[in-house]
Amino acid sequence: MTAQVGTKLRSDARDNRDRILVVARVAFAADGLDVPIREIARRAEVGVATVYRHFGTKEELLTEAFAQQVQMCSAVAEEGLAAEDPWQGFSHVIEKVFEMHALDRGFARAFTSQLPHTEGFAAERDRSLKLLLELIRRAKKAGSLRKDLVLEDVALALMANEGIRAESPQLRVAASRRLAALILQSFQANPVATPLPPAVRLPLSR
């Protein structure tokens, strides 16, 4: 095999890997974690074997697909801790993470269900939660966050946000903003009634 042919093969392999990742991110964001590898391969226009050649398991593909989002969660938590007012910092984290999860159904489920189980994803997720715990402690100390609130209450709120069903990502985000406002008022030590973001028409089961 000549050097030129070898370089071409490596370039094709990189292109395939990049295309699989792009397709996987879009598919998981829109349809959740249950999208099968066969469907990812079909949309990426490669064989199933090619997907597994680059990602040995679906969990490895999930880890790569969500690497940026889980790092963004930690970055948002750091922004919250950097805020001078702990309540404003806590509110910023809730609003931003709710919006991220509303835009990516797969990552929302991965975050709340502790998937994938790979070391890197789990470590970064745990880091973001530790940062959030510190922010909760500071907001309680400042008297702005109710004393009986625990991390599991935030998890409940994230699970509720994950359950939003709307006709478009834009409507999911709009509904998520309203939910975040409701949640934040319930988390306050001394709730102050403030106008909510506009309501969104959502499909209800009959």
Describe the protein's architecture and organization.
The chain has 206 residues and is an all-alpha fold. It contains 10 helices and no strands. Helix 1 packs across helix 2 and helix 6 runs parallel beside helix 9.
Distinctive features:
206 residues; 0% strand; disordered N terminus; globular; mainly alpha
Largest sheet, strands/sense/barrel: none
Order of helix and strand elements from N to C terminus: HHHHHHHHHH
Mean pLDDT: 90
Our estimate of the beta-strand percent is under 5%
The termini sit apart by 64 Å
Apparent shape: globular
**What oligomeric state do these chains adopt?**
single chain
Q: What does the radius of gyration come to?
A: 20 Å
Content-based structural category? mainly alpha
Low-pLDDT runs? 1-6
* Overall strand count: 0
- Helical fraction equals over 70%
**Individual helix count:** 10
Strand-helix topology:
Blueprint: H1 3-31, H2 37-44, H3 48-54, H4 58-65, H5 67-82, H6 86-103, H7 105-112, H8 119-141, H9 151-162, H10 169-187
Helix pairs in contact: 1-2, 1-4, 5-6, 5-8, 6-7, 6-8, 6-9, 6-10, 7-9
